[in-house]
Amino acid sequence: MWDPAQPAVSGVLRKHPSITVRTVTSPLSDRPTYPRSVLVLVLIGVVAAGFNLRPGVTGLSPLLDMMAADVRIGAVFLSIIGMLPPLAYGVVGIVTPRLVRRFGSVSVLAVGTGLVFAGSLVRLRLPEATPFLLLSALALVGMGIGNVVIPPIVKEFFPHRVALLSTVHVAVLQFGTFFPPLVAVPLALVLPGGWRGSLAVWAVTSGLALLVWVLVRLRAGGSRTGPEAPRAPGTPSASADPSGAPSGAFGRILRSPRAWSLMVLTGLSSFHNFILFTWHPLLFVRAGLSESTAGIMLGILCVIPFVLGLGLPVWAARIRTPVALVWVFCGFTVAGYLGMWFAPVAAPLLWTVLLGLGVSTFPLALALVNLRSARPEDTAALSGFVQGAGYLLAATGPFLFGFLIDLGGGAPAFLLALGAVLVQAVVARTACRPGFI
């Protein structure tokens, strides 16, 4: 970009005064900024909402055997409860960009946190499995909204701190993933209501997140990707595509091999995550470990992506491509699955650590959604596509894994998981390629 202040260019202008120099601005340069107090509130909101995107899932898995004493659950319930989170995330991911365009990202996230709170609270009062699943689905819809909306909110409010705030987002999401299974069983043993009391803790934290985003909505109003979004003078309004994203952004995504590869990489990362969220504790319990120990193992598995997620987004922003790291993670996943398949109780901690390293492709893939899109509008469209279609792909994981275990034991289920790792390794090169979509 030519700058008239540069000496060389100034000399040319003196010799040729008829030359006209046009200043090119960044897509973000003409966007107004919010007051510092609003930015602080949004940062608190990102932390609060990000934490509550997973406890309703990972905090339940170690309690399933306790829950079975009060609520009649069987193999169908286990398959559905494992498939429900990614299925809800996928469906919501497809429609959320349209809601963002119509109502604004802040308003949509406030509603999403409200759904998490309502579903998490009301399901505790239900004595039957079916209504419990339905209310869980309501909470998961709210979590799915947060999955899609938080990345573009980071891009909107902190356009020059995307890598740092992506790190914060990924870190609190992973903390909300690993901490609940660590404390789920101990909380159930000391709180009134047993497993219901344990799950009530996460209903309270989601209520706090709702309060923060209501305050953000009152202070910040709409958002720059919503109907209140200001446009630079002379900038035409974008026509909307069926997903709610600007037609140009959505068209580029559908035509981009990198976007499709990133979707598959993210989807298969979640494919493994939700298999392990559902079956990792159960497989260890069936192999002879105690429920408490199995819950601790799941917590350890989830804490590893949290620790790595503290540095992965910033590191990925500084290198040309993280494809080699993805391949290393895939190798760890293969080793962990093989260990759980052939000798689960021989070294449960080792298999857990290997799998925790392996599923760390997920925080890396989340960071790439922001790093491979140039504008908040592009980020919203890419986030909706990657997480919507990706979670629909991931929804098949727990169901197929459980079906194959019931059908033919461990071999078919673990072969399915190992095949998914191979596909991850293949698409990683295109997904991690440098540049913007």
Protein architecture, described:
It holds the Pfam family MFS_1. The protein is mainly alpha-helical and about 425 residues long. It has a single domain (about 30-225, about 240-430), classed as MFS general substrate transporter like domains (Growth Hormone, Chain: A), CATH 1.20.1250. The protein is about 75% helix and about 0% strand. The chain contains 18 helices and no strands. Helix 6 (about 105-120) runs antiparallel to helix 9 (about 195-220) and helix 11 runs antiparallel to helix 18. The chain is globular and about 55 Å long.
Number of domains: 1
What is the succession of H and E elements? Answer: HHHHHHHHHHHHHHHHHH
What's the CATH first level? Mainly Alpha
Distance between the termini: 21 Å
Specify the structural class: mainly alpha
The number of distinct helices, counting runs of at least 4 residues, comes to 18
Calculate Rg over CA atoms.
23 Å
Average pLDDT, all residues:
81
